[in-house]
Amino acid sequence: MSHTPALYLIAALILACWASWQSVLLFVALTLGHLALDSWATDDGIMWLYPFRRQQYALMPQPIHGSGLYGKEFYKHYYSLRHFLVAEVTLAIGGLIVTWMTFAPGLFYLA
Q: Helix (H, G, I), strand (E, B), or coil: what is residue 44?
């Protein structure tokens, strides 16, 4: 359930209680980007339609588990693929920006 759009839309509604609309919009874009990446980067996909359907959908399935890689070995292989590494780092930086905009917006304020 941690990789379902419904969970992150609920999180966005909660975030909207404290954060600016720009932060919430960036959060939604980043989380949907993360879900799309997880749906693209694996062969099993995610539950895009949860809670209405529990079926997993993959956008462009990659046979990444086909060679029997799981756990630590899976992640070593996954991050060795440059396009996935760049996408994950970009999403992580975006997450840090949302955190900064929400909890410390004046921290790096330049006069």
A: coil
Any idea of the CA torsion for 22, 23, 25, 29, to the nearest 10 degrees?
A: 130
CA distance 18 to 23: 10
From first CA to last CA, the distance across the chain in angstroms is 44
Beta-strand ranges (E) seen in 22-85 are: none
Instruction: Provide the residue ranges of all domains of the chain, joining segments of one domain with +.
Output: 5-103
Q: Which residues of the chain have pLDDT under 50?
A: 111
pTM of the complete model: 0.67
Which residues, other chains included, contact 19 with Cβ-Cβ below 8 Å and sequence gap of 6+? Answer: 27, 98, 101, 102
